[in-house]
């Protein structure tokens, strides 16, 4: 697969607690997994969410969330969640996700979009209000994207 964006891959094992009474992963768990992927991706950028955003008075408020389910997941299955930033602007950020079963079988894919807001719920222009954070975020994103392009699309975050 030729990839044009830097991804963060999170390996997981589906637990019984992730499943409904029929032993199939509960659909809403994908959104929990997406959150974990987002948090780890930001951490890999050197920007742990709590210290880089939350404790600075910035929240990433979810505006949209979508998931297409392709294959059932059951307890004890090993899966890999691939997460990447699909859009980055001064006021918003979007993430895309692909969840793979062992053997590279796509089980689900989705996306979320988020707005930067302050502690009062007001939109934030990240570049103006937090220029150091904005610069680190955009520079890391640019560097990782260039690395992927130069390598032919293979490296992950």
TrEMBL record:
<protein>
    <submittedName>
        <fullName>Acyl-CoA thioester hydrolase</fullName>
    </submittedName>
</protein>
<dbReference type="InterPro" id="IPR029069">
    <property type="entry name" value="HotDog_dom_sf"/>
</dbReference>
<dbReference type="InterPro" id="IPR050563">
    <property type="entry name" value="4-hydroxybenzoyl-CoA_TE"/>
</dbReference>
<keyword id="KW-0378">Hydrolase</keyword>
<dbReference type="Pfam" id="PF13279">
    <property type="entry name" value="4HBT_2"/>
</dbReference>
<comment type="similarity">
    <text>Belongs to the 4-hydroxybenzoyl-CoA thioesterase family.</text>
</comment>
<dbReference type="GO" id="GO:0016787">
    <property type="term" value="F:hydrolase activity"/>
</dbReference>
<dbReference type="InterPro" id="IPR006684">
    <property type="entry name" value="YbgC/YbaW"/>
</dbReference>
